[in-house]
Amino acid sequence: MSVDVEAYYRRYGPQVLRRCRFLLREEEQAVDAMHDVFVQLLRYQAALKDAGPSSLLHQIATRVCLNRLRGAKRRPEDRDDELVLKIAASGDTEARTAARGLLDRLFGRVPASSRDIAVLHLVDGMTLEETAREVGLSVSGVRKRLRALSAVLQELEAA
Amino acid sequence: MTSPHRTPDWLLERIALGELPPDELAAARDRLSREPDGPARLAALEADSRATLEALPPDRVAREVKARFARADSPAAPHAEASPSRPSWRFLPALVPVLAAATLVVLVRPGASSQEQEARDPWSATGTGGTPGVLEPTRSKGLQPRLDVHRQVGTRTEHLTDGAPAQAGDVVQLSYTAAGHAQGVILSVDGRGTVTSHQPALGDTSASLERSGTHLLPRAYELDDAPGFERFFLITSDTPFELEGVMAAARVLAASPEARTAPLTLPTGLGQTSFLLEKPSP
């Protein structure tokens, strides 16, 4: 399908920007990331399925921001922020076959990565069932992915 | 009566957009309405949306997004920041001459006003003279090295964009623009961790590149059924360099989780650009 960027932004842009603000905590970076989210949407427009744009953009924004946060040196401002930073900085401990990109799943090819799942479940507060539905996996699949980030979780529990 | 838990932000967004199944949407709205700050949160979110659209008008954002999208597909784009998508595939050993043959028609366009345009869409050029395989006779000042991938679709060819989906059986042809650099290597990394040098196919040192114009590799390839992604790299230099260091860097990258997006770790003096094809995964 073809994406009308302006129309998509008009409807979903504010949501995307809020998501980027929440994860990046810096307005300028958030606006920059928001633009990149729509670039990603354009890049994959040919394969885009016209279903759940809100969910789609929420996850694209999550992925774009996590990628930006990876390696970021800034200090966490609160517990959620700390968690996001740890998840973003964590290596994806699963094999590449299990660490497919968000966009791959969104376009019907592969599951979302563990980092995205962890943010949805641990930071966004989605239940396992909601997370599973969001990323198109079974609940057991989500549990399995979360185990892949167990080192991060253990570290958080110990903190 | 209050809800036992606060509606999370992501659900609030869905409520505002009305993007939930009807029964879920009704239930979520009802629950939100019964939360002490539910209506106020929804109102604040809607006000924030209006403020965002005023501060960042849709036409302006759309222009910026399209410009970034265009730059990502331009020769100067730093493809190291490729999308978080994925690909993996291997070249079948079989030579597929049909695409290359189709392109070896003279593609020089004397007097073209925009050489960069030729580089971006070399197969659209037609002509009757010149060197076979040379799509662009001279380079534009400031033109950056780039890789291009074309796919045969029926009797025509399709210029692929970075990150384009591909599948087993696709016949693809690579071309490069050295932009003044005399030496280079074209290699690929796939989702199985396989690293393949395409130019030079043999030898221990970099290949001589045509310093100007866009040039086809001598053969086209049929993609096999390797899952995930295939990522091509063009590494350029002004002087010959040993292949081993580059191949070692490619092997390290191929074994890493960032193989689809990260740049190669190369010695100073070597430039790189990459091109990603995505393939279905099992």
TrEMBL record, chain A:
InterPro entries: RNA_pol_sigma-70-like, RNA_pol_sigma-70_dom, RNA_pol_sigma70_r2, RNA_pol_sigma70_r4_t2, RNA_pol_sigma_r2, RNA_pol_sigma_r3/r4-like, WH-like_DNA-bd_sf. Pfam families: Sigma70_r2 (PF04542), Sigma70_r4_2 (PF08281). GO terms for biological process: DNA-templated transcription initiation. Residues 9-75 form the RNA polymerase sigma-70 region domain. Keywords: Sigma factor, Transcription, Transcription regulation. Residues 102-147 form the RNA polymerase sigma factor 70 region 4 type domain. The keyword Disulfide bond does not apply. GO terms for molecular function: DNA binding; sigma factor activity. It comes from the Bacteria. Belongs to the sigma-70 factor family. ECF subfamily. This is Sigma-70 family RNA polymerase sigma factor.
TrEMBL record, chain B:
Residues 112-140 are annotated as: Disordered. This is ActD-like protein. It comes from Corallococcus exiguus.
